[in-house]
Amino acid sequence: MISPLAYVDPQAKLGDNVTVHPFAYIDKNVEIGDNCEIMPYASILSGARMGKNIKVYQGAIVSAEPQDFRWNGEDTFCYIGDNCKIREAVIINRGITPEGGTRIGEGSFIMAETHIGHDSVIEGSCVLGNGVKIAGDCHVGKYSILSSNAILHNNGCIGEWALIKGGCRISGNVPPFTIMAHNPVVYFGVNAFVLRRKGFPEDIIDDIAKAYRHIYQCGTSVFNALRRIEADIKPSDARQAILDFIRAHNNDIVAVNANVNEFE
Fold first, then answer.
1. What is the spatial distance between Cα 73 and Cα 11, in angstroms, rounded to a whole number?
2. Alpha-carbon torsion 244, 249, 254, 258, what sign?
3. pLDDT digits over 189-202, tens only?
4. 194, 161 in Cβ contact below 8 A?
5. 260: pLDDT confidence band, cut at 50, 70 and 90?
6. Predicted structure pTM score
C-alpha cells in the first residue's frame, strides 16, 4: 500500500493498511496508526504521532517545525487523534518543547489552507473552515466551529460548542455555546441550531441564552453577571460550563463592554 514513488524513512512506524500515495513524504520519528491514507505531495514530518483512520490530503504538512524563536531544534511532537480529516495545504506545527505538543482531537475536520500553530490544542469533533489561522498556544473546545478565514490570536481560548463566523478576528477568550461575529468581534447569540441538532433540550438552550443575556445584554460587569446567573438560573452542566470557563479566565472574555466597572 506504499507507492514506490513515495519517500518513507526506514525509521518511520506505520500501522496496518496504511496507504501512502506517490510523492508523499514520511520523515523519521513518525508514527502512523492503522487505516490511514497519505495523499500525493503530503508531508508527515518528524514528531508526528497519528492515530487511526486519518486522511491527509494533497500538499498538507503535519508536524512542521514551530514558527517560534524559543524553539532550539529539540525533538518535539504533534498528536493527531483518530478519524481526523486534514485537507489540502493545511499546515500544523509541532510543539516547542518535548513536554508539550500540538494536539488535534479525534474526529476533527480541518479544511484547506488552515494553519495551526505550535502547542495549540484543538479538542475533538471540531470543524476548522478554509483558511482558518490559529496562532501558538491556543485552545479550541470540543464541537466548536471556526468558519472560513477566522483568526485566533496567540493564547486565545474558545469554549466548547462555540461558533466563530467567517473572517472574525479573536484576541481573547470566547465562552462556550456562543456565536461570535464581525470585526471588532461582537456577541451574536447562542449556537442554538447546532445545540438542537446534537440533542440539547430546549430548557437548557433557554437557560444558556438567559445566561448570556446577563453577560452581554444587561450592561453590567462580568463579575456581577455571574452572580446573577447563579441566582437566576437553575444548576445544570451547561450553566456550570459557562461559569467555570469565565472564572478560569479571570472574567476576561471577548465582546463585553469595557466601560463597565468590574464590580459594578
1. 19
2. positive
3. 999 999 999 999 99
4. yes
5. very low
6. 0.95
